[in-house]
Amino acid sequence: MSKFWGSLVKGLEPYVPGEQPKQSFKLKLNTNENPFGPSPKVLEAIQNQLNQDLRLYPDPESDELRLELASYFNVERDMVFVGNGSDEILAFIFQAFFQDQKVLFPDITYSFYPVYSSLFSVDYQLIPLNDHYEIDLMDYEDKNSHVIFPNPNAPTGMPLSLSKIENFVKNNPHRLIVVDEAYVDFGTESSIKLINKYDNIIITQSFSKSRSLAGLRIGCAFANSKLIEGLLRVKNSFNSYPIDRLAQTAAMHAIKDQEYFEKTRQSIIRAREYLINELDDLNFKTLKSGANFIFTSHSQKNALDLFQQLRKESVLVRHFKNPSRISNYLRITIGTDEQMKDLVSIIKKLI
Questions:
Q1: Which of the 8 DSSP states describes residue 241?
Q2: Distance of CA 62 to the CA centre of its chain
Q3: Which domain holds residue 208?
Q4: How many Å apart are CA 90 and CA 221, to the nearest integer?
Q5: Quick one: which of 133, 135, 140 has its CA closest to 150?
Q6: CATH of the domain at 227
Q7: pLDDT tens digits for 157-212?
Q8: Would residue 162 count as lying in a domain?
Q9: N or C: which terminus of the chain carries fewer CB neighbours within 10 A?
């Protein structure tokens, strides 16, 4: 601790990202990265941008990318915001809308939410998942608070139906509802269509998972134009040029290559169902997943022991010690068919 640390820094408990090991693992299945590389058209587009124009600043508002996203999702350009990863956009949301307010989010969810709450002095309340590890929006009826949750949830992977979300948004017009859709493309219905009907919902998405661009840090948000204006005010008070030229180009071509997107995401969905079925035969209990990962627990094998044994076999998955309610679960990223078959063979040997 430095003598120059302020009281804010002293009190922070920073977010702990998934391990990015220095040594290579046979199977790295801990951070929900896409097992398939970016679209070849994306890589070609990036190569074409490696020229003298890199000396120039990028478009500060990423207007061409916003237009591409608006066209893809059938919304207006001024209902689209892009940022340096969805994490940055979530930070802007906490700054723009949650300060001097109370926000509710699940007790088992994306752990950046309490970190941002502490960083931006936001009053928050944890709402327990129900006995089935589901988000029950009936538990979020505090009319004096805003709400944020992932759909599907993380680390559980469990999705909420669009009808339940719309009903909640419709019945709470004076509350801001933020739906974090980082994993939505793997079998969960998006809420983006709701922004044309309601002015109290923001949806965030990421290019890191289904578009295979985690290394470029690109995120986007969709909302009523007045909410987007609030995000732009915060962004332009923090970093006017958050998305570089290569990232803007990559994101646009990732959206355009729909064929590659469908091919790779469907492959991941099939591999997920294969893994769930195989683990079921091995006495695992796996929660329903609408993501590119599963959350699973063995009926007899301790999760921490299995995590450590898998690591010795050069397989890296994710284990959460806290809260204790999920300490006997492992989160496993879905890889290729071959990777999932290798994983099943190793698990069979261990148990």
A1: -
A2: 21
A3: 40-257
A4: 9
A5: 135
A6: 3.40.640.10
A7: 999 999 999 999 999 999 999 999 999 999 999 999 999 999 999 999 999 999 99
A8: yes
A9: N
